[in-house]
Design a protein that fits this description.
The complex is a heterotrimer of chains A (about 450), B (about 475) and C (about 130). Chain A is an alpha/beta fold. Chain A contains 14 helices and 15 strands. A seven-stranded mixed β-sheet of chain A has the order 2-8-7-6-5-3-4, sandwiched between helices. Chain A has a four-stranded antiparallel β-sheet with strand order 11-12-15-14, with helices on one face. Chain A starts with 7 loop residues before the first helix and ends with a helix. The mean pLDDT of chain A is about 95. In chain B, α5 packs parallel to α6. The chains are: A alpha/beta (about 450), B alpha/beta (about 475), C alpha+beta (about 130).
Chain lengths: ~450, ~475, ~130
C-alpha cells in the first residue's frame, strides 16, 4: 500500500507487543453493527505514472489563464510571481511544518510571521497585523466581529454595494445569527457617496465597510467615508488592494480603523480561488480584539532575541466560547509567500508594478472606449480594473471573446442585475500592449457582428 | 550547526537602493492619469530593500530553524502529521490547474469541476452523509458553516428555541467558539473516568432547547465513543442534531462512517486526513457533509453534473450563503483528491488500520514509563500523562516536550485535552515505521530518568531555549520598528 | 490588610467594605492559579454593576477569565497602576493589586458572600 512501511513481520511483532491478535482486534471499541460491511465505493488506487496521466488529462480539459489572455479580476488577479517565492515556499522546512507551538523548533516560521506582520503594517499604514486569515471575504467578516465586540453596539453594519459581492454575502452569513443587521448602501454611480453614509449612520452603527478600489475597479472617497463613520462613533473598515499600495494612499493614512485585504496579488497563484490570504491590520487600540494568531518578539532564557506565539488568551483554544473568532488553522504558507513577494519587490518594485497596472489599464480603457457602443460605466478614477458598458448582453459578448482566446472580463450583471451590459476588466503588469490591442480589435469585431 | 548568516530581521538587512525583482518598462503609450491628490501616496510603503541573494539566504537560513515532517518525526496529537507526497506538489503546479481564475466560465474549467465533483462524491461516500459543500476554508470554518446550516434549519422549522450547543469537556476549543459565533449558547458535557461522554450528564442537559451536540469521534483522547448510537438516539429524541468534529477521521476511513453511526453533519480536515501540507500553520480545508434534509441550507455553490457537463450550482434559495469568497481551498482539495485516488478504497482503509496499529504500538511502548490513563485499545492517537514525573521530580509535561526537541523529535501536543493533567497527546500516523516509533519511545523513556534540571532547562541544542512568553504578552512587540 | 475581615465570592473576588464604599480585588488563590498576570481590563468609572455582573477580564499566558462584581454598586475608581503593571496583582493581590472601588447601591448587601473561613474551606475542597 502506498506510503505504508510496516511489513507483515513488523505487524506481527507489533501486535504481539500490544497484546492483540489482529489489527481488527484494535477496532473492537467500534460496535460491529456500526462497521462498514463492504469496501468503500471509491476506485482502486493508482501508481504515480497513472495518477500523473489522469491529472494531466483533467488539466487539459481546462482553459487556464495561460491558455487564453486573462483580463479577469474581481478579487483575484493574474499578477507575476517571482521565482524566489516558489523556491522559498516549496522548501520542506516551510511547507511540511505546522503551527509553531514549540517555539524552539519553529523559529524560522515564527520570524517569518513576525516579518509578515511588520510588512502588513507597513503596507496598510497600521500598528498591528495578525498572522493571517483565510481570504478577503471572511477577513471583512472578522473585522466586523471585532467592531461588534469593541463598540458593544447592536445596530447596523453599513456596507457599500460596491464591495465585492462575495465578501458581502460572507458578511451576511457570519452575522445571520448574531444580534446585528447588515445594511447595504446603494452605489448607483459605481462608487459610494459619503453623504449617503452621513444619512445612514446613527449612534448604534457598528461599522462602515467600504472597499477601494471597489468591485468595479473604481476608487472610493475613503477619507470622507471614514469621517462620516467616525462622527457616529462607528468603526471604519477598509478593504484594500495590496498591489495598489505602490501608489495609492494607505488605509491607515486615510483614517481606517481596521484594514483588510485579499492578499492573493502578493505572490499567490490564481489556483481557482484558493488557498488565498486574508490580511487584517488595525490601529493599536483594537489589539485585544484581533482574531487568530499573533507572533511577538521576546528573549529566551539566555537573553537571545526570539519569537513566540503571543496573546493566545484571546484565541479559541483558550478563550473557547468567549473568543471573538473561531479561527485555528490559518494561511501561514500564503503569508510566507506574501512576505517573500513583498521583499522581492521592495518599495520600488511595488511602485513600478502599481504604475504599470495603472498605465496599462488606462491604455486599455481608452482603446476599448474608442469602439462604437462602448463607454465607461463610471467616470470616477480607477487603478487596475474598470467597468465598461458594451450596449448589449455582456455574457454573450464574453462568450464570443472566449472563443477568440480571451478571458476578457467579468459579466458584472451576474452580481448586479441592473448592469447586464457591463464588463469588469482587470489589467495587470503582465498584460502587453499586443494583448490589449488584440482584445480591443476582437471586441470591436464581436460588437460589430 | 548554528548559522547566523542573514538571519537578522529582513528589515535590518535592508540597504537603500538594493533590488531583487525588476519590472519591464511600460510598452503602452504614456497615459496621463490624474488621480486626485487625496487618493495617492507621496511614497511607496517603507518595505525592505534587498538583493536576490540576500533574500534567498535569509529565508533559506530561517527555514532551517524549523522542524518539519520531511526532517523529523512529528507526533503532534490531533494534527495528523503524515507524510506529504511529493507527486502532489508537482501535479498542483500544472498550469491547467494552477493558473485557473476562480471566476472563469464553467465551460473553461470542466477538468477542475470534474475533479471537485469527484472529491464531493468521495467525501460523501467516506462519511455516509449524502450532501456536501467543499467551501469551508478550514476545519473551524467547517464547524461554523455546519452550525449556520443547523441554525437556518431550525429557523425554517420554527424551532428557534433550540439555542444550546452541547460540547464535551474534551472538545477542541473551536467547538464552543464556533457555537458562540453561530448564535448558540455552548454547554459543557462532562467526560466520565473512562474518557467517554458521561451519558447521565448528557441526559440532564438535553431538552427542548437542545440544538446540536458536537462530538469528536474518535474523541480527543483517541477513544471511540462506543455509546455513539445511544448518544445519537438520545439527542435525536430530544429533537437535536449530531455534529461530528471530523478531526480524527484518519482512524476510521472505510471502517465506520459518521452517517452510519448517527451523525447528521460533519466536517473533514482535508489537510490532516488526506495529507495536505500544513504549511507552518495553514492552509487547511474543511468541507462539510450533511444529511439530505440539511442539504438545501449548505453554502453555495456546489458542483453538479448534467450528463457529461459539470457546472457550479448557485441556485440554492435556502442556502446560508457563503462563508468565504470563491470556491474553497482548492490547493488542499486537489492534493486530497490525488491522495484518495492514489490510495483507492483499499489503501484508505489500510491507512486507517496502520494509523491505529502504530498508535497502539507506541502507546504500549510509552506505557512502559508513563501513565496512560485510559484503557486500550486506542484509535489513531492516545493521551499519556507526565503527572508521576510532576509529583516526584516536579518535572512538567512541557519539560519532557522541550527535551524531546534535543533528540530530534517534534513534541507531542501538550496540555490538551484539558481533562488529563500533564497531558502528552501523541499521534504517530500510518506513514511512520516501527523503527521510528521504537526510537522515539526509547528516547521518551530515557528522558524520564534524566536529571530533572536537564529537562527543566531544555532544549539545549536549539538556537533559542524557553523564550519568555510572559514578557511577550505583557509588553507585546508585534512588528519591527526602526 | 487583614484578610480575615474580607468577604469573598465563590468566583474568587474579595470585598473590603468601608461604610458606603467597597474595594474589590481577587484572592491570592486565584492569582496563584492564573500564574503571571499579563493583562487586566477594568470598566470605566461610572459603570453601574449588579452583583454577579462581569466587570472585567484578567489574562495570563495560558488563560483568560472574566471578573465578576461581588456586590452591586457604581464604580468610583479603578486601579490604573495595576492595569499598567500587572505584576502588582501577583505581588500583592490584597492591597496594591486592588481593582475597583465601588459606591454601594442602596440595597446592596454582603450577606451572600463568604467569610474568610468559609472561603478557605471552598478552596481546600477544590484541590
Amino acid at each position: 500500500m502506498p506510503y505504508l512501511l510496516n511489513t507483515e513481520a513488523d505487524i506481527a511483532e507489533m501486535l504481539a507487543r500490544i497484546g492483540a491478535a489482529s489489527i481488527d482486534d484494535l477496532f473492537a471499541p467500534i460496535p460491529s453493527e456500526l462497521r462498514l460491511q463492504r469496501p468503500l465505493a471509491i476506485p482502486p488506487g493508482m501508481d504515480e505514472i497513472t495518477l500523473t496521466e489522469h491529472m494531466s488529462t483533467l488539466a487539459r480539459k481546462n482553459q487556464s489563464a495561460s491558455d487564453a489572455v486573462c483580463f479577469l479580476g474581481g478579487g483575484a488577479y493574474d499578477h507575476f510571481v517571482p521565482s524566489v517565492v516558489d523556491v522559498i515556499a516549496s522548501r520542506s522546512e516551510n511547507y511540511t511544518a505546522y503551527t509553531p507551538y514549540q517555539a524552539e523548533a519553529s523559529q524560522g516560521t515564527l520570524q517569518c510571521v513576525f516579518e509578515y506582520q511588520t510588512l502588513m503594517c507597513q503596507l496598510a499604514g497600521m500598528d498591528v497585523a495578525n498572522a493571517s486569515l483565510y481570504e478577503g471575504g471572511s477577513a471583512v467578516a472578522e473585522a466586523v466581529l471585532m467592531a461588534l465586540s469593541f463598540t458593544g453596539r447592536t445596530g447596523e453594519v453599513l456596507i457599500a454595494e460596491s464591495v465585492h459581492p462575495e465578501y458581502r454575502l460572507t458578511l451576511e452569513t457570519y452575522l445571520a445569527n448574531l444580534n446585528c443587521k447588515v445594511r447595504t448602501l446603494p452605489t448607483p454611480d459605481g462608487v459610494l457617496n459619503p453623504d449617503d453614509v452621513a444619512k445612514a449612520v446613527n449612534d448604534q452603527t457598528v461599522a462602515v465597510v467600504a472597499q477601494s478600489p471597489n468591485f468595479f475597479g473604481h476608487l472610493e472617497e475613503m477619507e470622507a467615508i471614514g469621517v462620516q463613520a467616525k462622527k457616529a462613533g462607528a468603526l471604519f473598515i477598509a478593504s484594500f488592494d495590496p498591489v495598489s499600495m505602490g501608489i495609492l494612499k494607505r488605509p491607515g493614512d486615510y483614517g481606517a480603523d481596521i484594514a483588510v485585504a485579499e492578499g492573493q496579488g502578493l505572490g499567490v497563484p490564481l489556483g481557482f480561488g484558493g488557498p488565498y490570504l486574508g490580511i487584517l491590520a488595525c490601529k493599536k487600540e483594537f489589539l485585544r480584539k484581533i482574531p487568530g494568531r499573533l507572533v511577538g518578539q521576546t528573549t529566551d532564557r539566555n537573553g537571545v532575541r526570539s519569537w513566540v506565539l503571543t496573546l493566545q488568551a484571546h484565541e479559541q483554544h483558550i478563550a473557547r466560547n468567549r473568543a471573538t473568532s473561531n479561527i485555528c488553522t490559518n494561511q501561514s504558507l500564503l503569508a510566507l509567500r506574501a512576505t517573500v513577494h513583498l521583499t522581492a519587490l521592495g518599495p520600488q518594485g511595488l511602485k513600478e508594478t502599481a504604475e504599470l497596472c495603472l498605465q496599462k489599464s488606462h491604455y486599455a480603457a481608452s482603446e476599448l472606449c474608442k469602439i462604437p457602443g462602448v463607454s465607461m460605466m463610471s467616470a470616477t478614477p480607477f487603478f487596475k480594473e474598470f467597468t465598461i458598458r458594451v450596449g448589449g448582453d455582456a455574457k454573450e459578448v464574453l462568450k464570443r471573446l472566449r472563443a477568440e482566446g480571451y478571458h476578457a472580463g467579468l459579466a458584472t450583471g451576474q452580481w448586479y442585475p441592473n448592469r447586464k451590459d457591463c464588463i469588469t476588466i482587470a489589467v495587470t503588469e503582465k498584460r502587453t500592449r499586443e494583448e490589449i490591442d488584440g482584445l480591443a480589435a476582437k471586441l470591436a469585431s464581436v460588437l460589430k457582428a | 550547526m548554528n548559522n547566523p548568516q542573514s538571519t537578522e530581521l529582513i528589515f535590518e538587512l535592508s540597504h537603500k537602493g538594493r533590488r531583487c525583482h525588476r519590472l519591464p518598462a511600460s510598452d503602452v503609450p504614456m497615459q496621463t492619469v490624474v488621480l486626485p491628490g487625496y487618493q495617492t501616496a507621496s511614497a511607496p510603503p517603507p518595505l525592505p530593500e534587498v538583493g536576490e541573494i540576500d533574500l534567498i539566504r535569509h529565508f533559506t537560513n530561517l527555514s532551517t530553524r524549523n522542524m518539519c515532517i520531511d526532517t523529523h518525526f512529528y507526533p503532534l496529537g490531533s494534527c495528523t502529521m503524515k507524510y506529504n507526497p511529493k507527486r502532489h506538489e508537482r501535479l498542483a503546479g500544472l498550469p491547467g490547474f494552477a493558473n485557473l481564475h476562480p471566476l472563469q466560465d464553467d465551460d473553461t474549467i470542466q477538468g477542475m469541476l470534474e475533479l471537485l465533483f469527484g472529491m464531493q462524491e468521495y467525501l460523501i461516500e467516506i462519511s455516509g452523509l449524502p450532501a456536501v459543500s467543499l467551501q469551508p476554508a478550514a476545519g473551524a470554518q467547517g464547524e461554523l458553516a455546519a452550525l449556520f446550516v443547523a441554525a437556518a434549519y431550525f429557523r425554517d422549522k420554527g424551532q428557534t428555541h433550540r439555542r444550546k450547543v452541547l460540547v464535551p469537556d474534551s472538545a477542541h476549543g473551536t467547538n464552543p467558539a464556533s457555537a458562540a459565533l453561530a448564535g448558540f449558547e455552548a454547554v459543557t458535557i462532562k467526560s466520565g473516568s473512562d474518557g467517554l461522554v458521561d451519558l447521565n450528564d448528557l441526559k440532564t442537559k438535553l431538552g427542548d432547547d437542545t440544538g446540536v451536540f458536537m462530538i469528536t469521534n474518535p474523541n480527543t483522547l483517541g477513544l471511540f465513543e462506543k455509546n455513539i448510537k445511544t448518544i445519537a438516539e438520545m439527542v435525536h429524541g430530544a429533537g437535536g442534531l449530531i455534529y461530528l468534529d471530523g478531526a480524527n477521521m484518519n482512524a476510521i476511513l472505510g471502517i465506520t462512517r459518521p452517517g452510519d453511526f448517527g451523525a447528521d453533519m460533519q466536517h473533514y480536515n482535508v489537510h490532516k486526513t488526506f495529507t495536505g501540507p500544513h504549511g507552518g500553520g495553514g492552509p487547511g480545508s474543511g468541507p462539510i457533509t450533511v444529511r439530505d434534509f440539511l442539504a438545501p441550507y449548505l453554502p453555495a455553490p456546489i458542483v453538479r453534473r448534467d450528463g457529461d457537463r459539470y457546472f457550479l450550482d448557485n441556485d440554492m434559495p435556502k442556502s446560508i450563503g457563503r462563508v468565504r469568497s470563491f470556491f474553497g481551498t482548492i490547493g488542499i482539495l486537489f492534493r486530497g483528491y490525488c491522495y484518495v485516488r492514489t490510495l483507492g478504497r483499499d489503501g484508505l482503509r489500510a491507512a486507517s488500520e496502520h494509523a491505529v496499529l502504530n498508535a497502539n504500538y507506541l502507546r504500549a511502548r510509552v506505557a512502559e514509563g508513563y501513565d496512560v490513563p485510559h484503557p486500550g485499545p486506542c484509535m489513531h492517537e492516545f493521551v499519556a500523562s507526565a503527572r508521576s514525573l510532576m509529583k516526584g521530580k516536579k518535572v512538567r509535561a512541557m519539560d519532557v516536550c522541550k527535551r524531546l526537541l534535543d533528540f530530534g523529535y517534534h513534541a507531542p501536543t501538550v496540555y490538551f485535552p484539558l481533562v488529563v493533567p500533564e497531558a502528552l497527546m501523541m499521534e504517530p500516523t500510518e506513514t511512520e515505521s516501527r523503527e521510528t516509533l521504537d526510537a522515539f519511545a526509547d528516547t521518551l523513556l530515557a528522558i524520564r530518568n534524566e536529571d530533572p534540571e536537564m529537562l527543566k532547562s531544555a532544549p539545549h541544542t536549539h538556537i533559542v531555549s524557553r523564550p519568555d512568553e510572559v514578557k511577550a504578552a505583557k509588553e507585546p512587540i508585534l512588528r519591527w520598528q526602526e | 490588610m487583614d484578610e480575615t475581615k474580607l468577604r469573598f465570592a465563590t468566583t474568587h473576588e474579595w470585598v473590603d467594605r468601608d461604610g458606603e464604599t467597597a474595594t474589590v480585588g481577587i484572592t491570592r488563590f486565584a492569582v496563584d492559579q492564573l500564574t503571571d498576570v499579563t493583562f487586566l481590563e477594568l470598566p470605566k468609572v461610572g459603570k453601574v454593576l449588579k452583583a454577579g455582573d462581569e466587570f472585567g477580564v484578567i489574562e495570563s499566558v495560558k488563560s483568560t477569565s472574566p471578573l465578576y462584581a461581588p456586590v452591586a454598586g457604581e464604580v468610583i475608581a479603578v486601579n490604573d497602576a495595576a492595569m499598567k503593571d500587572t505584576g502588582l496583582i501577583n505581588d500583592d493581590p490584597y492591597t496594591k493589586g486592588w481593582m475597583l472601588k465601588m459606591k454601594l447601591a442602596p440595597s446592596a448587601t454582603l450577606d451572600h458572600l463568604k467569610s474568610h473561613s468559609d472561603y478557605e474551606t471552598q478552596i481546600a475542597d477544590s484541590h
